[in-house]
Amino acid sequence: MRRTLYTKIRRLSLHWHRDLGYFFSGLIIIYCISGIALNHVNDWDPDFILIKKEIILPQTRVAAKLEQAEIEAISRLTGEKSFKLYDFPTPGQVKIYYNNATFHVYLKEKRGFYERISKRPVFYQLNVLHRNSVHVWKWVSDIFAVMLILITITGMVIIKGKYGFSKRGIWLLLAGLIPPLAAVILQAIL
């Protein structure tokens, strides 16, 4: 009877493991890609692309005499079609604001610094999900975490014999716990 119950649990685990694995495989891949991107946040910005460039103006201008037509002419040097507004942080400067960009112009030096920020395609959206920045997504993420635990547990009982969990699997599980435990211990020491 014990053998029959184990066989039923094993068979049910096989089906659950397979079906849950298929169902969540897309989300697993998304979380893995986003996780790699977020792990390297000090190497690159996984959410935004920042473009910076210095632009040389063809002539000097006086801040007090700048009018909208001249601001538009200066803006064309950046490739921007229209600006939102502009101001004068100092008497020799004009700062022009665009959608997701700014142009800081030093009038006497005939140069300016243009900066544009844009969302990094795909990564931005994946990272929003990974960080649970969408309010409702928190619950989806919790369900996903529980399902990963269930997928892991069902995977432990699928294989039997010398490659099963009770023989080889338990040792691999214990070996797999060494890196995170070592990291926690090292973090506590340092």
Automatic annotation (TrEMBL):
The keyword Isomerase does not apply. InterPro entries: PepSY_TM-like_2 (IPR032307). The chain crosses the membrane at residues 20-38, 136-158, 170-189. Keywords: Membrane, Transmembrane, Transmembrane helix. PANTHER family: INNER MEMBRANE PROTEIN WITH PEPSY TM HELIX. This is PepSY-associated TM helix domain-containing protein. It comes from Haoranjiania flava. The lineage of its organism: Bacteria, Pseudomonadati, Bacteroidota, Chitinophagia, Chitinophagales.
